[in-house]
Amino acid sequence: MKILQRNQPGLRTALALVIFILVSGLLLLVLSLINWPEISMDTKVNWLFAIILVFLLLVAMLVVLSLRFWSYQNKTTIVLVFTYGLPLLVVLIIQVMLSLGISADISKNIYGNLWRMTWQVLYYIWQSMLLLFSGLFLFPHVQEKTPFKKNELITGMLVGLGMGLLGAYFCSVGANLFAGQAQTQLIQPPPGLLYWIVLFFSLTITPYAVEYFYRAILEPDWKQRFPRFSSVILTAGLFAIVQMRVLLIPVAFAAGLVFSLVYRRYGLWVSVAAHALSNLILFIVAWYLVF
């Protein structure tokens, strides 16, 4: 990390190029393994999904380091564009290509199936990683005012339990309203690795990355631009919209408001605990209803 902190753009560029070459070589190796008949389909899909995750991790890190190199620190709007806007553009382009049949051979084989099963998960993981790296490298670190107490942590978990159950209710309503539609889009079950990756992110990286960026960075920044309390409402609205689920918008908006109040009252780690428990309940219910 000391190397990256020095003003050596040539060294950073060379390091990025080496990483890109290594990942590209690994990607080609995995793609070649997919054609081996002795390897099971589950293994092929898990390998492909794993290499995509590694590639996303490296790209997110390189994006943040590039923004830092070009002096885009403390720019919340830039971070939001790269976190939500850029991947949505990529998703839109790929969806249009698949729907128009431009790549008919791809749309019907393992790659097309994997895309339909995992694009929302990959979008979710990309958000988490970019917000995490942005909070670490593009903005001054925000220290906790006071350490949290055990009873405060319990309060946060109770809040998360309530928000999770509320979200689970809306998920069940949506599943009953649109029963059967989601299942017809899945040609095969999702990769087994997907379950554990989503669970890991939902309980660890995502709650911390989102709460730290939204509460410690975005809200104070928008507080300087908009009237009092507007920053809380706007960040909650943004948090709701990026969920990509119509039925979850009111729940996510309420959760954004509640998590913000928890952060202001008890601090970062209590709001992270509330967010994590809420995610756990939603994950269990949503996975059961969909798969």
How are the SSEs ordered, and which strands pair?
Layout: H1 2-5, H2 9-34, H3 41-69, H4 76-100, H5 104-108, H6 110-137, H7 150-177, H8 181-184, H9 192-203, H10 205-223, H11 230-241, H12 249-266, H13 268-290
Helix pairs in contact: 2-3, 3-6, 4-6, 6-10, 7-12, 7-13, 9-13, 10-11, 10-13, 11-12, 12-13
Report on this structure.
The protein has 291 residues and is mostly helical. The protein contains 13 helices and no strands. The chain has a domain at 143-291. The N and C termini lie far apart (42 Å). Helices cover 80% and strands 0% of the residues. Helix 4 runs antiparallel to helix 6 (110-137), helix 6 packs across helix 10 (205-223) and helix 11 (230-241) crosses helix 12 (249-266).
Amount of helix: over 70%
**Largest sheet, strands/sense/barrel:** none
Oligomeric status of the shown chains?
A: single chain
Q: Mean pLDDT, as a whole number?
A: 79
Task: Please tell me how large the radius of gyration is.
Answer: 20 Å
Question: How much of the residues is beta strand, in percent?
Answer: under 5%
Number of helices: 13
**Spatial shape:** globular
The succession of helices and strands, N to C, reads HHHHHHHHHHHHH
Low-confidence residue ranges:
1-7, 103-107, 181-187
Query: What's the total number of strands?
Result: 0
Euclidean distance between termini CA atoms: 42 Å
Structural class based on helices, strands and sheet pairing: mainly alpha
